[in-house]
Design goal:
The chain is α/β, with parallel strands linked by helices and about 300 residues long. It has helices spanning about 25-35, 55-70, 85-100, 115-125, 140, 150-155, 175-180, 200-205, 220-230, 235-255, 255-265, 280-295; strands at about 5-10, 40-45, 75-80, 100-105, 135, 160-165, 190-195, 210.
Length: about 300
């Protein structure tokens, strides 16, 4: 079970029409690229996958579409975050029935949650299915901070097997991992999101890279991840240098907006982000195109 939450997890966008209906054909095309590249897992309906912008019906449609493409070749993880616990439980059951292999849960809230409220929310969702679940620690969006004590309590709930962590403010991954690992079960996986820091996180001993860029550019992302997993610092620096223009754009505009622009420029999909999110301007798109050109030399394996 822990292996479901290790390696490179690619998170694609979920192309959808203006009314929120998922474009299954465009979504399938994105997913086929990930399966062909042999990423370690596919994550759908996370922040990049617009999970908070889609109805229950369209979320289930997205999981069904992904399951029909992935076909068990890779772990398929589905986000099931919702404001209400009963809704998150329903989404978890839907995802299991539709073919997901694992779940990802963020502490979505309007009224800020207490540590105790988050505990009971996660416990309820984790107990609703037989699927392993990863905690989605995304304070930049949810404004919720997990205490170490809460993480320890959650880690000993059956089915909760991993956490998707944000980049630490001081970028000291080794110190964070050294603090957390002794408190958590030996088979509990600690991975990171925030693409520009995940190679360093992996070099420091992180188990997984939950990647936005891998959802669109799996081959270059795999090169970076495999170099980090091998401890090849020189190769990490070489590949990461090609990513730097894109990382700059991610930090400036947010990866969500940038990856939609990149997908359009690559003609993978012509869908725009869900409103009220606006697409990048033509000048900003030009910068995205230039960043993609820098990465073009990494598109061939090995």
């Amino acid at each position: 079970m822990p292996s479901r939450f290790k390696g490179l997890s690619a998170f694609p966008i979920t192309p959808a029409e203006e009314n929120g209906r998922v474009d299954a054909e465009a979504f399938s095309a994105l997913l086929e690229r990930l399966v062909a590249a042999e990423v370690d897992s596919v994550g759908i309906l996370g922040s990049t996958g617009s999970y908070m912008y889609l109805s229950r019906e369209e979320k289930r449609r997205a999981v069904e579409t992904a399951a029909s493409v992935v076909k068990g070749k890779r772990t398929l993880m589905a986000g099931v975050g919702a404001l209400r616990t009963d809704e998150a439980v329903t989404l978890a059951k839907d995802a299991e029935a539709a073919g997901a292999d694992a779940l990802l849960l963020a502490p979505v809230s309007y009224t800020p949650l207490t540590q105790e409220e988050a505990y009971h929310h996660f416990a309820a969702v984790a107990g609703a299915t037989a699927l392993p679940l990863a905690i989605y620690n995304n304070p930049g969006t949810t404004r919720f901070l997990f205490s170490d004590e809460l993480l320890v309590r959650l880690a000993y709930i059956p089915n909760i097997r991993a956490i998707k962590m944000p980049l630490p403010a001081d970028q000291d991954f080794a110190a964070e991992l050294e603090r957390l690992r002794p408190k958590l079960p030996d088979d509990f996986a600690i991975g990171y999101s925030g693409d520009w820091g995940c190679a360093a996180a992996t070099l420091a001993g992180g188990d997984a890279w939950y990647s936005v860029v891998a959802g669109l550019l799996p081959v270059p992302a795999l090169k970076l991840m495999r170099a980090a997993q091998a401890g090849n610092v020189d190769e990490v620096q070489r590949v990461d240098a090609a990513f730097q223009p894109l990382w700059t754009l991610f930090k400036e505009f947010g990866s969500f907006r940038v990856v939609y622009a990149a997908a359009n420029l690559m003609s993978v999909t012509l869908m725009e982000p869900p409103r009220p999110i606006l697409p990048l301007t033509s000048a900003e798109r030009q910068r995205v195109e230039e960043a993609l050109n820098v990465l073009s030399g990494l598109e061939d394996l090995p």
